[in-house]
Description:
Lipocalin; eight-stranded antiparallel β-barrel; 9 strands; 48% strand; globular; disordered N terminus
Amino acid sequence: MCGPVAGLLPAVLFHISETIHRVVATAAAMALGTSATARAAADAQVCSVGTLKGLYLWTADGYTRLGGDLLPKSIMEGIRFNGDGTFTVPFGTVNIGGTIVIDISGGVGTYTVAADCTGTLSVTDGPSFSLYVGPGAQQLWMNQTAGGAGSGPGLGVGTATRLP
C-alpha cells in the first residue's frame, strides 16, 4: 500500500489489538468476579436437618448384585423430608435388569445433615447413602454407601430435585 492509507494501517492495527486486550481483560475479570460471588454464596450456606423439608423427586442409576450377577438398576422415587431427620417415600419403583421389581412406596428412614451440607440417608431395612445439599436445598446429590438387609451389595448414584 502507498500513500496516506499505508500510514494509517499500523495505528488501526494497534487500536484493534488494544480493544481486543481490553475486551479479554474485562471478560476475564467478569468471569472471575462471578465465580467468586457464586463460591461465596455456596460457602456461606449453613445446613442442618431442618434445611431439608418437603417433597423431592430422586432419580438414580447403578448396579446391584443378584444371584452372583451384576445387573443395572434404576430408581425413581419421591422422598418427603420432614425437617426433623426423618423421611417417608410416598411413591417409587426400582427397576433391575429391565424389570420393575420393587414398589418402594411407604418406605421410611432417617437422615443427617451437617453444617457443611454433607450428610447421610438411611432407609429402614434398606440401603444407606451419603448426600450433599446444594444451594438453597433445591437439589441433593446422593451416593449409595451400603446395601440393606437382604438387598446385597450395590452401587447407586443420583440427584434429587425439590418439587414445588
